[in-house]
Design goal:
Blueprint: E1 2-3, H1 22-29, E2 37-38, H2 55-59, H3 66-76, E3 82-84, H4 87-100, E4 107-111, H5 117-124, E5 128-132, E6 146-150, H6 162-174, E7 178-182, E8 204-209, E9 222-225, H7 228-238, H8 245-256, H9 258-283, E10 288-289, E11 293-297, H10 301-309, E12 313-314, E13 316-317, E14 323-327, H11 331-346
Parallel strand pairs: 2-12, 4-5, 4-6, 6-7, 7-8
Antiparallel strand pairs: 1-5, 3-9, 8-9, 10-11, 11-14, 13-14
Helix pairs in contact: 3-8, 4-5, 4-7, 9-11
Amino acid sequence: MVGKPNQKKQETQSKLIHGGQLNQQVRHYNIPREHWLDLSTGISPFSYPSDQIPKDSWQRLPERSVEFDLAVTGYYQTQQFVACHGSQAAIQWIPTLWASLGNSGSKIWLPKVGYKEHQNYWQQANFDYCLYSDLPSPQQLQQHSVVVVINPNNPSAKTFSQQRLLTLAKQLEQKCGLLVVDEAFIESSIEQSITPFACEFENLIVLRSIGKFFGLAGARVGFVFSSAKWLDLLESAMGQWPVSGPALWLIERALKDTLWQRQQFQTLTQQSQKLAGLLEQQFKSEARGTILFRVISSAKASRIFDALCRQGIYVRLLDDLSGLRFGVTDDAGLERLRLALEHINDHGE
């Protein structure tokens, strides 16, 4: 599928549908916010504790410390990075910066299924794009081609191997192209991460997010790993103080806390398995996904979405209306979801 930048910007408007837009559901269904169970995102409901942030970090302008840098490089196993206001900030800047390097005629390859903000900003920057279901072949790549990969994909959970992505990076390097890999959910399959190799290529950009695994989306912290050229461009574009002082303090401790990370992985794995079992029992179909979300295909997805919302349970209706994405939750949330789905099944909704 080929997209043109002069199409009506239905998919590039600021009001793209995402999970987490709970206030819209509150207004639409007239159910008070405190009565909702929000399963619409892939953000962990089990957050790294944030109640000890010192007063000093609120009062001073943010400064990255040596300790912060060591925490980042230790966790991500690479030396070169830029911290940003969530990986979303980098997603917004990359297309504009790529065009500024003289690549305005590039062909952009974007996943047909996936986080649509990537497509949004490449289209806003007036690039033509192709939507792929599988990665483009070497024969399909042109000079200055750009390939965007979400690994693992959200919401399909499809994962590409580390070796396949490194091979693609080499192919694009030969074409003076660019590979952008969004690893927001990679903690589910960390062995496939190409973050440690990001600085070995001139035009490979890897995005990582604190929000999902650590349950700290509100801190708005992400990282970009790439060559010195790209890090300089992004750092200049994003300006001074892209991350707040309290967030710097908190994220440093989260990245150092290996005991909490191990416990978090175990908890998320356990709850994800419970969620998959519940969904497969109720829908009689496979619940594919990661440790942070599960996806069910259903021809009745729109009706089920509405029926769940009427019971104060907010899930993510897929863009093509072919299924639903459910974020992990605690045992109480699972029980509430079970009762809601049984009610829907009993009433034939």
